[in-house]
Amino acid sequence: MRILMLAHRLPYPPTTGDRVRAFHVARALAAGHQLTLACPLEGPREVSAARELQATVSDLECVTLSPLQRRVSALAALAGGLPLSVRYFASRPLAARIQRRVDVEHFDLTYVSSSSMAQYAPANVPLIMDFVDVDSEKFARYSLEAGLPMRWVYRLEAERLRRYERAVAALARRSVFVTAAEAEIFRGIAPDAATVVIPNGVDTDYFRPTRYRESGVPTIVFTGALDYLPNVDGVRYFSEAILPLIRRRVPRVRFLVVGRRPDRAVLALRRPGTIEVVADVPDVRPYLSQAHVAVAPLRIARGLQNKILEAMAVGLPVVTLPGPAQGIDARAGAEWFVEDGPEAFAACVARLLGDPAERIGIGRQARRFVEEQYAWRQILPRVEALVASAARVEPERRLTTSEVRHA
């Protein structure tokens, strides 16, 4: 089957949640089909990464979009009707290159990763729309937390995205989400959408327990993109509301924050010997191996958190708030810990830091759970089944791509 895949970011290296999912889907599709992958590049530094990706996906169509171009395009959307996040990924050169390929290749199926790329989906080609999360709900939540003027911007974005998501779902034969909870939310927006749940997975060969010697200092780790609002809020919340309570019980504790592009608010939290921010590392595994406990203190959480799966895969006990826990069907107290409120969260982490036997036992159970439920080898056959079923569905009256752009 000839498949066109549209991704909103180059899915390489697969080091953040959206890239991880898109990379493994692309690799699976390339292994069994003729795959063309089209995506924007964030800058010249990604050109070499695109060349490396060609070892997995040989047929790439990429156009570099500068940060300035993206911001200008997004700001222009304020005067129009499209969501800012859709305009942020708009590119006439990329659209032209995709259309030239469509005219020549005659694709059997389009697989879109992230709704912002639906603007490039060719008309009259069966479409799978991998929404992953319900972005309109994410921006609605942002609007509740932000002050003016961003509260107004986020609220406007949420309203526009709801209309856009509804229109895209009408165009798609299948609408894919990472959890059943996200799919249920989306059915409230688009009741007629043919929703499918395919969770994120974890590479259990790459993320595995190691023999690295644990640091002698009791260490807590958080990993994730550090310019992403939910992660920024989570790190601040943990550092300001939870970590001081842990320090009362474990005075020498160290909090290790590892991720890309740390926001100024994250960098401001640094305290020598207590809170360390490690930026833009190519591999998080050495930092996971230094830790005794991993935390996911996200108050704003959507979908399924890769950071949790990766920590569980290396055999770390994970403590999370209830929000991030909604996407993972693990047993609290047996495979991870779900704690609500600073006191309960801090008490759980402090107990684990002081009990090596419990840490090791929970870590082993966490690893086993991930191997059985979330290894990519368990997940990817569902993608292949999805592709086959979408290709068989009889086409109905659908919106044209132009109609979606003007939703």
Name the features.
Rossmann fold, 2 domains, 6-stranded parallel β-sheet, globular, alpha/beta, single chain, 407 residues, 7-stranded parallel β-sheet
Descriptive report:
Helix content is 47%, strand content 15%. It has 407 residues and is an alpha/beta fold. The mean pLDDT is 93. Strands 3-2-1-4-5-6-7 form a seven-stranded parallel β-sheet, sandwiched between helices. The chain has helices spanning 17-32, 45-53, 67-76, 84-87, 92-105, 135-145, 150-171, 180-189, 229-249, 264-267, 285-290, 306-313, 322-325, 342-353, 356-373, 376-392, 401-405; strands at 2-7, 34-41, 60-64, 109-113, 127-132, 174-177, 195-197, 219-223, 254-259, 275-279, 293-296, 318-320, 337-338. The protein folds into two domains: 2-201 and 376-405, 3-Layer(aba) Sandwich (Rossmann fold); 219-373, Rossmann fold (3-Layer(aba) Sandwich). The longest helix is centred in the middle third of the chain and has 22 residues, at 150-171. β2, α2 (45-53) and β3 form a beta-alpha-beta unit. The chain has 17 helices and 13 strands.
